[in-house]
Amino acid sequence: MKTIKRVLVGMLLFTSLLAGCSKEEDSMISEPSTQNVSLEFGAVLNDLANKVMNKTIHNQLPNCNNGVPKLARITVSYNGEARTVDLNILSDGTTYYTDYSEELKIPVKVSSDGDDSNDFTKVTLSEFLVYDANPDNGGKLVWIAPKGDSDFSGYVDKPLPFDITVRPGTKKYVELEVLCFDERMANEYGYLSFVLTTEKLFNLCFFANYCDDNGRHYPANYSIDLFVLNEDGEQIQIYAGGEHGTMPDIGQYDDGEYFGRPLCLAVPGPPDGVAGDEDYLFYTIIPEDWESLYGNIDNIPLAAEGLNWNEVQALYNDDGETQEYIHILINCEEVSACGEFETIPESSFYDSITPENPVDYFEIVTYLDEIIFSFSQGELCADAEDIPNCINEFEMLIAEDGFVISCLPAGCYTFIRQQVDGVNQLITNDEELLEFLGIIDSKGDALLLALANDYYWNINDIENGAIKEACDGYELIVSKIVSSCTPLQIDRFHLRITHSGQIIILDQEVIEYEENICI
């Protein structure tokens, strides 16, 4: 139920310490006015619950199932020249740090007149990349320091590049933060040895429907205010409604159908001292207008809701790859309780189809180069003078298209061929199908009409394939591919099909979402 592919497991935020060995800076003067000074980097772990994340934060997080760091490749520049240095990464079993390097000794000019105000070298750190092996021999990039103009800069307090002032006679430490690297999102980082500490982020996903005054469901446009509790018991806002990243991706497909995709926000785990059943996340849904779909609506925020750590963890499924989302209903009342849902059995539902007008014989055919499925009612050529010839003529009746396109990506299609008073006819589009069915007065009628509108169902699975006779027509639980390529998205629908053949969406939710897949 309500699973979406968790394209991203979580984000590890690292802090780093460069040149952690006990080497003292080289005090030898390489020339009368120059001293070499070792540059070292230390770090302090950010408390994500106490910082407001950049409004360009992404709905997706980098995948943090990365390898063990072995080598850091950094780029620094000073005195008008840039230098790229490779540093081996060591570990004492609990922390990681880079090995000492002669290449990170920075020359600093020392004046001889006693005025040391200009005795410094300005070093610019512009790149920092960490690999699980030497990249020249196939090592993979596992961590990276984001740059200030990148989409991930909001996750660190000091993105690259930044300047470092190195003075003689000092032991220079500079704080640096890195993020795990996901090659699918390489452009998002924009673009020296460290102690690494982890802070994990989790996806919290939402999907919403808006109901008009007639009870019809639409994919909703909305935004979210989200607060997180810090260790002092204060609510810190990390997402502000209406800003980029706090609203779902909405739009319209080429066939005219509107869509709303799940909105996933990165949230931290609970702070120390907060129990698993104690609320530490607080969110408010703000309904937003959607001019081309349902127009201007009441934008009064819904009541605030709280979440505890147990509830956040419960959204993740046992497979570790999929996640349920929080389903929000805006202005929606509960649907009619008429009837009870039952599964759609494996045996054909076509038995109950009742054509509007008397038909001697009809056959529902699914075709792909040949007939791959057929169902028939009635007696073919019962009154024909030449029955074999009559049957042959009917069997030669093959449509070039149909009211159902399926078997993706091959593209089989379904049509109806019928015989009325000895005349053979084809039914190949939605209008002809509605005329053939007339009043929707059987479950078979309702299911065939749903099939003609690209809905499908699972056999004997009441959560993904069900039908009931309702107060006005029939209600169905069915699925539909709403986007077949980048992304692949499949939604589950609760439909009402009226006796007149109108299809009303009572509810809609995403059950599968794959960002980079086509079928």
What does the model show?
Helices cover 6% and strands 40% of the residues. Strands 2, 4, 5, 6, 8, 9, 10, 12, 13, 14, 19 and 23 form a 12-stranded mixed sheet that branches. A 5-stranded antiparallel sheet has the order 24-30-31-32-33. The radius of gyration is 32 Å and the shape is elongated. By secondary structure, it is mainly beta. The chain has 4 helices and 33 strands.
Defining traits:
mainly beta, disordered N terminus, 40% strand, 519 residues
Q: Which class best fits the helix and strand makeup?
A: mainly beta
Total beta-strand segments: 33
- What summary fits the major beta sheet? 12 strands, mixed
Termini separation comes to 22 Å
Report the portion of residues in β strands. Answer: 35-45%
Morphology:
elongated
Oligomer: single chain
Topology, pairings included?
Elements: E1 3-5, E2 11-15, E3 34-42, E4 71-78, E5 81-91, E6 96-98, E7 105-109, E8 121-131, E9 141-144, E10 162-166, E11 172-175, E12 177-180, E13 200-211, E14 217-219, E15 222-229, E16 235-239, E17 250-252, E18 258-260, E19 263-268, E20 279-287, E21 305-308, H1 309-314, E22 322-324, E23 326-330, E24 342-343, E25 361-367, E26 371-378, H2 387-395, E27 404-406, E28 412-420, E29 423-427, H3 430-437, H4 443-452, E30 466-470, E31 473-484, E32 488-497, E33 503-514
Parallel strand pairs: 3-11, 13-23
Antiparallel strand pairs: 1-22, 2-12, 2-13, 3-7, 4-5, 4-8, 5-6, 8-9, 8-10, 9-12, 13-14, 13-19, 15-16, 15-20, 17-18, 20-21, 24-30, 25-26, 25-28, 27-28, 28-29, 30-31, 31-32, 32-33
